[in-house]
Write a structure and sequence with these properties.
alpha+beta; 4-stranded mixed β-sheet; elongated
Length: 144
Amino acid sequence: MIELEDFFEDVIGKTIRGTGIADGVLSFLTNVEPDAIAKLKNGEFDELAVRAIAPALGLDANCLVELANRVWRPESVELEGLRQSNTVFDPDPEDMMTVNSYLIWDPQTKEAALFDTGADASPALDMAKNLGVDLKSLFITHSH
């Protein structure tokens, strides 16, 4: 199973930022108190509040609840020319976060690109070496 990089609070927070909806406006639209919205954004799960704000954000409430309860993760995908690695970003057990990196390559030419590095590039670089691919490009899609 692939470890998730974003949890329900990340999805809610990113959606709020992406839509530009202020917490006060979201509160007005959903009758969810601003304090409850702030708690959701900090990872305190409240199913009723999640179900109330999800439609206003264009999110599927059932999917958010499953994400919060950690009952769903994507299945692993095996494709020639694609590998994923996962590293721990913050070793603090109270606030542990994992980040993904993706190595892609052309199976014929063996030219490769790395998307993100994870918290430590070593596993991805070791993977490239072990596969015998020629790393040509590095793409950083976000920072953490």
